[in-house]
Design goal:
13 helices, mainly alpha, 78% helix
Length: 286
């Protein structure tokens, strides 16, 4: 099957999932150099702010947009969610953190139904069901691997997932009137001063390797944000976000390659269920 046969929204969402998986791997790697989470957030925001500003100027449009309160709200919610997500990535295995984070498509579909009036289609419901079963299998309920998860890390991951869902629904609403580059620009505009203020005197001077990883965090974030924003503009929020579960697979692969986190049989079975759900959502024509 040609890549052009895949709907454009799905292609953008897959690109977004890969970008965010690479970003999470870089976050986990740079935390090994003793860089605080808030400093990682600030570095990401700094790179994204510069790239977003250049992108807006390239399009010769206003950087401030038409709906400033909603754009600022998206930035605040996104910044808070990011701190939670990064904390979970640095304190859990990459696969566990990603699995917990990617409960957000379900939150997104429900919030889109409540606030945007978007009906949850049969294909999306089946995809979400298979994906959640896959997530439960990967989490191995009842085994020490799940029970032993730090409670603060667990709640941080779920809080990050809920915050992400709220931010994505706002993005869907804004996409009807705002340019995607303006929407992306507001996130680092809010996240940078917020993270620097909270960081205070805990700043750690990064070495060259850590500095490169911080730069890659920002670059891969931009790739993920662009893919996500364009996907949300091209498709209903609930349906588009269902494909974000593929990041679980990407993260598991990166965990093996870079952190020697070998997936268990449960992880493989769960991953297959998640992919099956994504395929059903993509191929079901009704």
């Amino acid at each position: 099957m040609s890549i052009t046969a895949v709907p454009i929204a799905i292609r953008y969402m897959l690109l977004s999932a890969l970008g965010f998986a690479l970003m999470a791997a870089c976050v986990k790697a740079v935390s090994g150099y003793g860089i605080p989470v808030l400093e990682i957030v600030a570095a990401r925001a700094l790179v994204s702010l510069g790239l977003s500003y250049l992108d807006v100027k390239r399009k010769r449009i206003s950087i401030w947009g038409q709906h400033k309160p909603l754009l600022l709200a998206r930035g605040v919610v996104g910044a808070l969610a990011l701190v939670c997500v990064y904390y979970s990535v640095t304190t859990l295995s990459l696969a566990d953190a990603t699995v917990l984070q990617y409960t957000y498509p379900a939150f997104t579909a429900v919030l889109a139904l409540l606030f945007l009036g978007e009906r949850i289609k049969q294909a999306t419901m089946l995809c979400m069901l298979l994906s959640f079963v896959g997530v439960i299998v990967m989490m191995r309920p009842g085994e020490a691997g799940l029970i032993g998860l730090p409670m603060l890390s667990l709640f941080a991951a779920l809080a990050g997932a809920l915050g992400s869902a709220i931010a994505y629904v706002i993005v869907r609403k804004l996409s009807q009137t705002e340019d995607s580059s303006v929407i992306i620009f507001y996130f680092p505009l809010v996240a940078l001063p917020t993270s620097l203020l909270l960081l205070g005197g805990d700043f750690v001077m990064p070495g060259m390797e850590a500095l490169l990883l911080l730069l890659l965090v920002g670059i891969f974030t931009q790739v993920g944000q662009i893919g996500l924003t364009k996907a949300m503009a091209a498709e209903e929020a609930g349906k588009a976000s269902a494909y974000a579960y593929v990041q679980v697979i990407f993260s598991a692969i990166l965990g093996v390659i870079f952190f020697e986190e070998i997936p268990t049989l449960w992880t493989i079975i769960g991953g297959c269920l998640i992919l099956a759900g994504a395929l059903i959502n993509a191929l079901w024509k009704r």
